């Protein structure tokens, strides 16, 4: 903490991972001998830069850009870019650190990275977003490349932003290459990439229920989803396909209750409002006359309005389920949490899940479908080819099953058979740590 002051999210992520690694460290002295913990918590490279851009009125603004190239032992650095006013070095270090283990779990050779800016795309015109993206890329381009570092989207960085970033990169380097993922389908993107995180996390949830509850679908379950962005949209679609009832969606302004679950009309309106128009979820609630709760979280609304909540599917941001929220959900009959967002549960909330036998699908395993399909997008670009939606979806499903099985394998090996947090952390760690040892001292 003294070495990395004012980075509470990074400390939290490291604490969570290191705590679960104790048994594997005790059993394998080589990790201490090679100082793997000291090395793996120190980014290989941190890039910070100024981004100056001009708004529609000709006024100049200064934001800070970042790229954390955390660990490249098993493949090119890979991880999203986040544009949100809460972005700090500590937030991106937590995300980059998590990404190392997540990427290792996918089985695709990708190192861990993260980046972004404290730029807020809310309320900005398309031209302002484009000018910001161009100026951001003016510095970032020299640090990335299809075999070096391949960024993707995250909060505030969707198809529009990836388009502007890719256009700027191509113009600067005068090459078409798969330097970003999440690209448009006409220009190198992969089918199923937009769906991948939400679909993948639902596949993971089904594996949890199959193994630990003997259930193959979500029939009879109320599912509280938070957020209404990329992850939440496709999670709500897949959950509904599996027979679950989605009882909430939310955004940074409040939560919407869905007494009859989500149907195609509501889903299309959410997609149109959030992904295309970059608007407010409240507009959807008003359009369909659905109850809207300003300033409330999905968990409280779900518990109060639906009465019973069986599954929590956080898909907005970090630390969105604290101990109080976890208690609310547990009192409403919670049986499983599947993390679509990164680190959405505080450490106290996670302890409460374990104390109350709630099944827990941790972010770095459950939401790895997005980066996995980004890896498949890189493969398609490298081969100058496109795969069908069915093929990518099948590969995504297989990868999610493998990630789940890796977690189970290590959880059982270390005598905590239902602890997928421990199993997934160890599964990701040993692969990266052993690779670092193989590659010498650096
Ligand atoms: P989007 O920007 O598409 O959506 C984010 C959603 O979360 C929006 O509804 C947003 O509301 C809400 N939100 C963001 N910050 C806050 C906040 N501080 N408080 C309350 N609500 C908030 O992002 P994604 O769906 O892509 O990402 C969501 C989460 O999933 C993040 O944790 C991300 O790291 C993680 N993730 C995403 C992957 C992907 O493939 N997209 C892959 C793996 C993880 P509003 O619109 O009002 O801002």
Automatic annotation (TrEMBL):
<dbReference type="GO" id="GO:0004354">
    <property type="term" value="F:glutamate dehydrogenase (NADP+) activity"/>
</dbReference>
<comment type="subunit">
    <text>Homohexamer.</text>
</comment>
<dbReference type="GO" id="GO:0006537">
    <property type="term" value="P:glutamate biosynthetic process"/>
</dbReference>
<dbReference type="InterPro" id="IPR036291">
    <property type="entry name" value="NAD(P)-bd_dom_sf"/>
</dbReference>
<dbReference type="InterPro" id="IPR014362">
    <property type="entry name" value="Glu_DH"/>
</dbReference>
<dbReference type="GO" id="GO:0005829">
    <property type="term" value="C:cytosol"/>
</dbReference>
<dbReference type="InterPro" id="IPR046346">
    <property type="entry name" value="Aminoacid_DH-like_N_sf"/>
</dbReference>
<keyword id="KW-0560">Oxidoreductase</keyword>
<dbReference type="InterPro" id="IPR006095">
    <property type="entry name" value="Glu/Leu/Phe/Val/Trp_DH"/>
</dbReference>
<feature type="binding site">
    <location>
        <position position="99"/>
    </location>
    <ligand>
        <name>substrate</name>
    </ligand>
</feature>
<feature type="binding site">
    <location>
        <position position="197"/>
    </location>
    <ligand>
        <name>NAD(+)</name>
    </ligand>
</feature>
<dbReference type="Pfam" id="PF02812">
    <property type="entry name" value="ELFV_dehydrog_N"/>
</dbReference>
<feature type="binding site">
    <location>
        <position position="102"/>
    </location>
    <ligand>
        <name>substrate</name>
    </ligand>
</feature>
<protein>
    <recommendedName>
        <fullName>Glutamate dehydrogenase</fullName>
    </recommendedName>
</protein>
<keyword id="KW-0520">NAD</keyword>
<feature type="active site" description="Proton donor">
    <location>
        <position position="114"/>
    </location>
</feature>
<dbReference type="Pfam" id="PF00208">
    <property type="entry name" value="ELFV_dehydrog"/>
</dbReference>
<comment type="similarity">
    <text>Belongs to the Glu/Leu/Phe/Val dehydrogenases family.</text>
</comment>
<feature type="binding site">
    <location>
        <position position="230"/>
    </location>
    <ligand>
        <name>NAD(+)</name>
    </ligand>
</feature>
<feature type="domain" description="Glutamate/phenylalanine/leucine/valine/L-tryptophan dehydrogenase C-terminal">
    <location>
        <begin position="190"/>
        <end position="440"/>
    </location>
</feature>
<dbReference type="InterPro" id="IPR006096">
    <property type="entry name" value="Glu/Leu/Phe/Val/Trp_DH_C"/>
</dbReference>
<feature type="binding site">
    <location>
        <position position="78"/>
    </location>
    <ligand>
        <name>substrate</name>
    </ligand>
</feature>
<feature type="binding site">
    <location>
        <position position="374"/>
    </location>
    <ligand>
        <name>substrate</name>
    </ligand>
</feature>
<dbReference type="InterPro" id="IPR006097">
    <property type="entry name" value="Glu/Leu/Phe/Val/Trp_DH_dimer"/>
</dbReference>
<dbReference type="InterPro" id="IPR050724">
    <property type="entry name" value="Glu_Leu_Phe_Val_DH"/>
</dbReference>
<keyword id="KW-0547">Nucleotide-binding</keyword>
<dbReference type="InterPro" id="IPR033524">
    <property type="entry name" value="Glu/Leu/Phe/Val_DH_AS"/>
</dbReference>
<feature type="site" description="Important for catalysis">
    <location>
        <position position="154"/>
    </location>
</feature>
<feature type="binding site">
    <location>
        <position position="153"/>
    </location>
    <ligand>
        <name>substrate</name>
    </ligand>
</feature>
<dbReference type="GO" id="GO:0000166">
    <property type="term" value="F:nucleotide binding"/>
</dbReference>
């Amino acid at each position: 903490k003294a070495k990395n002051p004012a980075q509470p999210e990074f400390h939290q992520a490291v604490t969570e991972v290191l705590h679960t690694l104790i048994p594997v460290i005790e059993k394998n002295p080589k990790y201490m001998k090679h100082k793997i913990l000291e090395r793996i918590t120190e980014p290989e490279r941190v890039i910070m830069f100024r981004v100056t851009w001009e708004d529609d009125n000709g006024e100049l603004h200064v934001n800070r850009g970042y790229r954390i190239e955390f660990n490249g032992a098993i493949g090119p650095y890979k991880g999203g870019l986040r544009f949100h006013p809460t972005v700090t070095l500590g937030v991106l270090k937590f995300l980059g650190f998590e990404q190392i283990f997540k990427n290792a779990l996918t089985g695709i050779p990708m190192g861990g990275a993260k980046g972004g800016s404290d730029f807020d795309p809310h309320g900005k015109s398309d031209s302002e977003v484009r000018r910001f993206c161009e100026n951001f890329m003016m510095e970032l381009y020299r640090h990335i490349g299809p075999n070096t570092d391949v960024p993707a989207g995250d909060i505030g960085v969707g198809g529009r932003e990836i388009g502007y970033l890719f256009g700027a990169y191509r113009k600067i380097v005068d090459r078409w290459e798969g330097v970003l993922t999440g690209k448009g389908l006409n220009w190198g993107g992969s089918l199923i990439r937009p769906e991948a995180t939400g679909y993948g996390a639902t596949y993971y949830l089904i594996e949890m229920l199959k193994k630990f509850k003997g259930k193959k679908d979500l029939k009879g379950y109320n599912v509280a989803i938070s957020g209404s962005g990329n992850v939440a949209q496709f999670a709500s679609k897949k959950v509904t396909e599996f027979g679950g009832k989605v009882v909430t969606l939310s955004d940074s302004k409040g939560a919407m209750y869905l007494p009859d679950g989500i149907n195609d009309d509501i889903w299309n309106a959410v997609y149109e409002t959030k992904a295309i128009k970059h608007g407010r979820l409240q507009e959807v609630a008003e359009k369909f006359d659905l109850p809207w709760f300003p300033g409330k979280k999905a968990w409280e609304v779900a518990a109060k309005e639906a009465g019973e909540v069986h599954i929590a599917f956080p898909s907005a941001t970090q630390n969105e389920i604290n101990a109080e929220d976890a208690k609310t959900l547990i009192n409403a009959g919670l049986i499983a949490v599947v993390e679509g967002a990164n680190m959405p549960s505080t450490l106290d909330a996670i302890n409460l899940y374990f104390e109350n036998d709630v099944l827990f699908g941790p972010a770095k395993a459950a939401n790895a479908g997005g980066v996995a399909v980004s890896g498949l997008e890189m493969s398609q670009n490298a081969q100058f080819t496109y795969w069908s939606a069915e093929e990518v979806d099948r590969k995504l499903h297989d990868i999610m099953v493998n990630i789940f099985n890796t977690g189970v394998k290590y959880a059982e090996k270390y005598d905590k058979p239902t602890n997928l947090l421990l199993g997934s952390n160890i599964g990701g760690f040993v692969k990266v740590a052993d690779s670092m040892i193989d590659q010498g001292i650096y």
